[in-house]
Amino acid sequence: MALIVVPYHQDERLPAALLPLPAGTPAVVVDPELPAGDLWARLAALDEAVARAVAAAPDPVTMVSGDCLVAVAGLAGAQRAGRDPALVWFDAHGDVHTLETTTSGYPGGLALRLALGGNPEVLADRLGLRPVAEERVVLVGARDLDPPEVAFLAGSRVRRTTVSGLSAADAPPGPLIVHVDLDVVDAAELPGLLFPAPGGPPAAEVVAAVRRLRATGRVVLLDIACPWHRVADSSARAALLEALIG
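^ that's the sequence the OP posted. Answer follows.
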C-alpha cells in the first residue's frame, strides 16, 4: 500500500499534529510551493502535484489530507494511471454545490459536484479530469444537505445509502475510489470537526463499511479527509486513522 499525505486544508498548510498518522508509517508528503493570488489557481497547483503523485504510486493508494477537494486530484491521478474509477463518497454533507448555488462560498462544498463535471473551469479543465457519470457514484451517510443539494440529488442518478446499509454489492462495477470525509462519523464521537453533523454513525461502523469495500480488491484509492480543529487529546483521531489505513 502506498500512503500519500497532503497536509493542506484547501490552500492552507496544516501542522503535522492535525493529521495524527500511525507512528513509523512511510509516506509520500505532497507539499508544493503554491503560487500567490487566486484561490483556485493555488488549488490547481496543489492538485496537479497530488495527481502526479497518485498517478506514479502503485495500487492501492491511501491518501490523507485536511480537505475533500483533494479527492478531485486523486481522481485525476487515477485516470492518468489508466484507471476509470467510480466513486463511493462517505460524507455527512452532499458536497454537490456549484459556484452558483453555494451560499457559504466554502469550496469544499463543491468537491463531489466538481468530480461529476460541475464548474469544470475551476479544476477539472486544468487537471485534464474526465467527469464521473452520476450512475457510477454512491453517496453514503449524507444527512446535512442544503436545499439546492436536495434538489440536485433528487433529479440525479447518484445513489444514496446509509453507512450501515452499504454493502460491497452496492458499489459500482470496476475500480473504485472510496472517499471518506471523517465528518461522516457522529459529531458526538469525534469532537472538533469543522462542520459537525449530529445523528451520524459510530466510527466503528464507518471503518467496517470501508473494510467491506476494500475486501473486494477493487479499491484503487482510499481518500481520507480530516476537516477538524486542534483538540487537546487527538487519540481518538489517531485510532480512527490507524483503523482506516491498516
